[in-house]
Write a structure and sequence with these properties.
CATH topology: Neuraminidase
Strand order of the largest sheet: 1-18-17-16-15
Number of helices: 1
CATH class: Mainly Beta
Shape: globular
Number of strands: 21
Helix content: under 10%
CATH superfamily: TolB, C-terminal domain
Structural class: mainly beta
CATH architecture: 6 Propeller
C-alpha cells in the first residue's frame, strides 16, 4: 500500500531553535515524546531521559536480557500513563518505568522484519485505533501493529514516500480536532503530516539541514531530537496542533 500525497508545501512551522540538551558524543538522542508536563527521549545506548524546564529530572539505563538488541532504543511513545520504547533490530516493544526498567517485552519482528543496521527507527501510539506505528529505516514504511493479550498483531503497512530513513513520528490532534501524525525523514531532511489513512496533508524541509533528526515531539513548541546535536526546541510560528 502506498499513501496518497495531497500535500501543501510549507515552511517548517518552528523558528528560533535553541538547544535544551546536549551530551554529544556520549548521548545520541534517537526518539522523543511529550507527556503532560515533560519531554521524554531515548538514546541508542539504552538510556531514557526525562526533561522538565530543560533540566534532566529522571533517567534510567536499560541493560541485560530484558532489553534485547543490545538495547538499541530508537523510538519512544506513551499509551495513557504507560511509557513504551522500541528497539531497532527486532522491533521489540518494551513497556518501561524509570523506577523499575522493563516491565513488558513484545517483539514485532514478524511484522517489521529483522535488521541490525536499518531496522525500527520511529514509534508513536495512535489512541483512536489502539495501534502502534513503527517506522522502519531501511524502507521508510510505517508498520502498524496492535497488542492483543500480550501478542503483537500485524495490522498493515504503508509507504509514505519512495524514501528510506523514516526516523521519527508523533501523534497529535489538529486545530479542528482530527487526529494526525507528524513524521520525519532525516536523510531527506523532510517532515510531513499524515492522516491516519496515510494521506499526506502537509510537508516541509526540516531546519538546519543536519540530516540527523531522529525524533519529533510537540507541546506547543516543537522538539527535534538530533543524534549528533542533542535536543532542540523551536517556537511555533503557525498553530497546527493541539495536545490530545
Amino acid at each position: 500500500m502506498i499513501s496518497v500525497v495531497l500535500a501543501v508545501a510549507l515552511i517548517f512551522p518552528g523558528i528560533n531553535g535553541v538547544e535544551v540538551y546536549n551530551d554529544a558524543p556520549n548521548i545520541e538522542p534517537s526518539g522523543a515524546v511529550w507527556t503532560d508536563d515533560s519531554l521524554l527521549f531515548v538514546d541508542d545506548g539504552g538510556e531514557v531521559f526525562e526533561l522538565r524546564d530543560d533540566v534532566v529530572t529522571d533517567h534510567v539505563v536499560l541493560r541485560g536480557s530484558a532489553c534485547p538488541d543490545n538495547c538499541d532504543l530508537e523510538g519512544i511513545t506513551t499509551r495513557g500513563d504507560e511509557i513504551w520504547v522500541v528497539t531497532e533490530w527486532s522491533s521489540t516493544l518494551l513497556r518501561i518505568t524509570f523506577a523499575d526498567g522493563v516491565l513488558e517485552s513484545h517483539s514485532a519482528e514478524h511484522c517489521v522484519g529483522y535488521d541490525s543496521t536499518y531496522g525500527a527507527e520511529a514509534l508513536t501510539y495512535v489512541p483512536d485505533t489502539d495501534e502502534f506505528w513503527i517506522g522502519k529505516q531501511a524502507d521508510g514504511r510505517v508498520y502498524v501493529v496492535r497488542l492483543v493479550d500480550g501478542v503483537v498483531e500485524c495490522v498493515r503497512n504503508f509507504s509514505v514516500y519512495p524514501h528510506y530513513d523514516l526516523s521519527g513520528m508523533a501523534y497529535g490532534i489538529d486545530p479542528n480536532g482530527a487526529p494526525w501524525v507528524w513524521a520525519i525523514w532525516d536523510a531527506y531532511n523532510k517532515g510531513a503530516i499524515l492522516r491516519l489513512d496515510g494521506t499526506v496533508v502537509a510537508e516541509w524541509a526540516l531546519p538546519d539541514d543536519s540530516q540527523a533528526q531522529e525524533g519529533i515531539a510537540y507541546n506547543g513548541h516543537i522538539f527535534l531530537a538530533e543524534d549528533n546535536r542533542g535536543v532542540r526546541r523551536y517556537n511555533p510560528w503557525l498553530l497546527m496542533w493541539r495536545r490530545p
